[in-house]
Amino acid sequence: MQTKRMTFSRSWLPYALLAPQVIITLIFFIWPSFQALRQSVYRQGDAFGIRPPQFVWFQNFQALFADPLYLNSLKVTAVFAIGTTLLSMSVALLFAVMVNRMIRSRDTYTTFLVWPYAIAPAIAGVLWWFIFNPSIGIMPYMLDMVGYNWNHRRDGNDAMIMVIIASAWRQISYNFLFFLAGLAAIPQSLIEAAAIDGASRMKRFWTIVFPLLSPITFFLLVINIVYAMFDTFGVIHATTEGGPAQATNILVYKVYRDGFVNLNFGSSAAQSVVLMGIVIVLTVIQFRYIERRVNY
Known about the structure:
Layout: H1 13-39, E1 42-43, E2 54-55, H2 59-65, H3 68-100, H4 106-114, H5 121-131, H6 138-145, H7 156-185, H8 188-196, H9 201-212, H10 214-230, H11 233-239, H12 251-261, H13 265-288
Antiparallel strand pairs: 1-2
Helix pairs in contact: 1-13, 2-13, 3-7, 3-10, 5-7, 5-11, 7-10, 8-9, 10-13, 12-13
C-alpha cells in the first residue's frame, strides 16, 4: 500500500503552522505547571514582604498527607468523580439509544439535548441550586410528599447528590453526541442478523452494540474523569462552596480556598501538583490497561 507524504513549498511553513499552538501550550499550560512545581517547595512569606518565601523541600507535601481535611477531600473527590462519570455516561447512552431509533424527530431531539452543554458550569449549579432549594425548590417539595426531608445545607449526602446531578446534567449533552455518532456508525446488518437468529433487543445491545461502542466509551471515560476533576469548580462554588462540613470540598475547590482565600500559596501549589499527578496516573492506567479491552 502506497502512502502519501505531505510536502511544503517552504521549509519554514510547517513550523509556522505549529507555532500558535506551541506558544499557547507554553504560556497557558507548561509555564503555569512549572510555576506550580516551583511554588510547591516554598513556604510563603508574609504579605508585607518582610519575610521572604522559604525553601522547605517537600514539607508542604508531607503536611498535606498528614492533614485529615486533605485526606477527606481526596475521598470526596473520588466519590464525586465516579458518581458524575457514571451518571452522565449512563444517561447519555440511554438517550442516544432512544434517539437513534427515531426517524422523523431525531434532529429535533438531538438539538434539544445538546443545548445544556452551552450553559456554563456556574449557571448550571445555580439552576440546580434553585431546584433543590429547601425553601423554594420543587424537588424538596416532591421528596417531602414521599417522606424524605431534603436539606443539602446540613446533610452532606444531600449536598453530594445535588452537585453530582448538576455536574452530570451539563456533561450529558457532550457524551450524548459521541454515543449517537457511534450508534449511527454500527452496521445495521449485524443487528438484523442477530434479530433473525432470535436474540432479544437487550441481548443485541449487550453483545453487539455496546462492544462496538467501546472505543467511544473509553474516550468518554477519560474525558469525564478529567472533567469531574477540573471543570466542576463553578458548580461547587455556585451551590455548596465545599460544604456542609467539607462534604463537597473536592480537590480543585480546596486548591482555590487554600490559595486565594486563605493565601497559603505553598500548600495550594502542592495540592495542584498532586491533583495534576492523579489525573496523569489515571489517564496512563486507562490507556495502558483499560484500552486493551477496547474493540476497535
